[in-house]
Amino acid sequence: MNENNIILKAENIHKSYKIGASKLKVLKGVDLELKKGEFAAVTGASGSGKSTLLHILGTLDKPDDGTVIFNGQQLFASSDKYLNNFRNKKVGFVFQFYHLLDELNVLENIYLPVMASKSIFGWFAVKKQARNKALELLSMFGLEDRAKHKPYQLSGGERQRVAIARALINDPPLLLADEPTGNLDSQTGNGIMDVLEKLNTQANQTILLVTHDKNIAKRAERVIKLKNGKIDNTKG
Ligand SMILES: Nc1ncnc2c1ncn2[C@@H]1O[C@H](COP(=O)(O)OP(=O)(O)OP(=O)(O)O)[C@@H](O)[C@H]1O
Ligand SMILES: [Mg+2]
């Protein structure tokens, strides 16, 4: 396979948690490859380590062993400066419980990652552009008349669409989503999958989604199963 087509590659990922004197081995040698433009889902039972794996792939957590390579760069061998830039610009995160700030309106929530990456003066220089981009994303997700709403004034599905817009504000090449439909009824959840599918097919957005829901997973191009701390390559 042409390595240039691989956006993310994890090799031999191990992760354990210490609980008192005992050690809980969660990931026991996970290997995974994600191609540019691919939409893949990671499934597995509750507690199988899906979130742990996603956090490691996004460098929100460190593996005990193994490597994660993003566009040819070994993430855990990189400087803090590289990793900060990676987390802010190269990867977008979407979580089950949205993690929006209730004090800010929808528009402000969406452009917050741009603001966070700038100095005060730098922010003034790009504010208009960031605002326009946020409005563009809102209208793409059918929420143009919700810009001034606070997150608590929105439905669950609307909140998740705002969270997806926030994850995309810096045009990250990679979108990581942890149970983005986990808090929604199946119809609303499928609406969120429609949004992700559209991003993938129309904007060629690379997406790795974690879900325990088989009906959600099968809407992705490829399903990766996590079992007993490893990727399960058996069929069925
Ligand atoms: N910070 C932590 N400290 C100790 N144990 C942890 C920690 N985080 C996760 N675990 C344990 O690791 C295992 C895997 O957790 P993880 O959250 O990755 O599972 P999951 O597959 O995402 O589950 P779910 O589908 O319920 O979200 C669980 O048994 C959990 O209890
Ligand atoms: Mg989880």
Radius of gyration: 18 Å
Task: Give helix and strand order, one letter per element, not per position.
Answer: EEEHEEHEHHHEHEHEE
Sheet with most strands: 6 strands, mixed
Number of helices, counting only DSSP H or I runs of 4 residues or more = 7
CATH topology: Rossmann fold
Instruction: Return the domain count.
Output: 1
Spatial sequence of strands, sheet with the most strands: 6-7-8-3-9-10
Low-confidence stretches: none
Q: What shape does the CA trace take?
A: globular
Number of strands: 10
In short:
This protein has 236 residues and is α/β, with parallel strands linked by helices.
Overall description:
The protein has helices spanning about 50-55, 80-90, 105-115, 120-140, 155-170, 185-205, 215; strands at about 5-20, 20-35, 40-45, 65-70, 75, 90-95, 175-180, 205-210, 220-225, 230. The protein is α/β, with parallel strands linked by helices and about 240 residues long. The chain has one domain: P-loop containing nucleotide triphosphate hydrolases (Rossmann fold). It has a six-stranded mixed β-sheet, sandwiched between helices. Helix 5 runs parallel beside helix 6. Bound molecules: adenosine-5'-triphosphate and magnesium ion. Magnesium ion (MG) binds near residues 50, 51 and 179.
